[in-house]
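Thread title: Can someone regenerate the structure for this chain?

I was given the following input by a collaborator and told the matching structure tokens would be attached. They weren't. Posting the sequence so someone can regenerate them.
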Amino acid sequence: MNETLEFLIRHGYTLLFVGVLAEQIALPFAAIPLLLAAGAFAMIGIS
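Best answer:
Regenerated them for you:
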């Protein structure tokens, strides 16, 4: 779990960008869960 959190802290902006880009170019991918997770991390101070 700790490794996953460190990965998300290190590469979170890139993952968010790629996820939203995938949705915008009409791939079958939902960006809403990524946006909600990014908001939750921002609220608790993980960036």
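The radius of gyration is 11 Å.
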